Every structure is written in C-alpha cells, then in structure tokens.
Amino acid sequence: MTYTQLAVLGVSIAIILDLYVFKTKLLRRRVFWVSYSIVVFFQLVTNGILTGFGIVEYHGEAIIGSTTPQDEPPTFIGDGRLIYAPIEDLLFGFSLVVLSLIIWIWLGKKGIQREPMAGPPRKSVHRLLGIK
Amino acid sequence: MSKFAYLSVLLGCLVGTAWLEFFLRTKVYRRAVRLILTILPVVVVFSIWDAYAIAQGHWTFDPRYVTGITTVANIPLDEILFFIVIPICAILSFEAVRSARNWEAGDEETK
Fold this sequence. Notes:
The structure holds two protein chains of two kinds.
Chain A: H1 3-21, H2 30-52, E1 56-58, E2 77-78, E3 81-82, E4 85-86, H3 88-109, H4 126-129
Antiparallel strand pairs in A: 2-3, 3-4
Chain B: H1 5-23, H2 32-56, E1 59-61, H3 77-101
Keywords (chain A): Membrane, Transmembrane, Transmembrane helix
Keywords (chain B): Carotenoid biosynthesis, Isomerase, Membrane, Transmembrane, Transmembrane helix
Main location (chain B): membrane
C-alpha cells in the first residue's frame, strides 16, 4: 500500500476505535478539537523543520506529491505538500494523536491514575488564559 | 545541523510543552504509570507502520541528521523516540486545555 492509502486507513481506524470500540468519543468533544488545533499548528512547524531540511525524505511513488528533491527543499505549499511536509503527514499525525488520547482517556475511565485530575491553572497564567 | 538534528526537534517539543505541567498543572508526568501504559501500545503500533514504510521505501532518513542508531526492523532510534515524545506532547496539550477550560474529557468519575 502507498503512504496515502495507509494514512486514510489510519484515520479511519482511529475514528472507529474512538467512537465504537473504546467509546471514548473524543471526536465529539470540544476539549479534543481545541487541543488538536493547537497540536496541529505545532505539528506543521516541527514537521516543516524535519521535511524542509530533508531530515526525513519521501518517495514520490508513496505520496500524492513528488519525491523529495536532492539538495534543495521540497515545495513549501503545493505538489501535495503543506509547509514542506506531505499532506499525508497530517493524517498520520491525526492517527497518532487520537490513538494516544484514546488510550490515555480509556485508562483513566478504567480508574488507572484517574487522579490527580488536571488543573486548576496557576494564578500567574490566569490572565494569559483569559480566566477572570 | 548534525547527527542530532532530529533529536533536537524532539527535545524542542519536550521543552516547549514542559511548562504546561507546571503552570496549568496538567499532572501528566505525575501520572507516570498511566502515561507509560498509554505510550507502549502506541509505540508498538506506529513502529509496525514505520517498519513497513521504511521497508517499502515510503520515507528515508538523511544519515547526516539522525543518530545512526537503528533498532528493530531498521527503525532509527530517533523514530522510536518520536513515537514517545509526540504522544506526551499531545496528552499535555489536551490536559492543558481541560485544565484551562474545565471541559469534560470522558474519564471523569461517573456518579
């Protein structure tokens, strides 16, 4: 299978695991989508470094875009890429993040170190977070 | 740029999220058992994916920028660490948002 196919499969499995197998239903929660938006922003930054400098290189047969060129960065946006990285990486990252959170929440639901729960934020960051 | 380029990015991720544990009291590292139990299956599943992708030539690593230490199935040590670091960062971000907004996440005690 190509990376494109595996990436779509990965997302599909993550969705099924969340909604129907573990029933964590993260994908229906505001806390997930807000934190995922933050994560995906930083994913684009860090993955841009990994792919822009050619630390990780991709083969054109496996992705929508073309092979990472030798001795120059790949396309910044376009040719199946977003900030140097193949768009498949967004699906890969989604699967990785969702699977991690599914297991984390599922273990908590089972009572494995549910406590201590997160929060509250320290007073010093209340203004930063818009807490009155 | 050096053999530690990939590792430096991962270190940046850990350093960049570490403040959440203190200032938002995410208590993720404090729940180490739960964190380790979460990471283990993730590392296994994504290493299988990685091993397949490397074997098929989906992606390669520039030997100038990775440690050169490889683990099972030609997976660079750097990649294994990626599958440990990214889940930690994701969970820290998730727990930070929950801490800041008090939103339900699904693992609360059911009364």
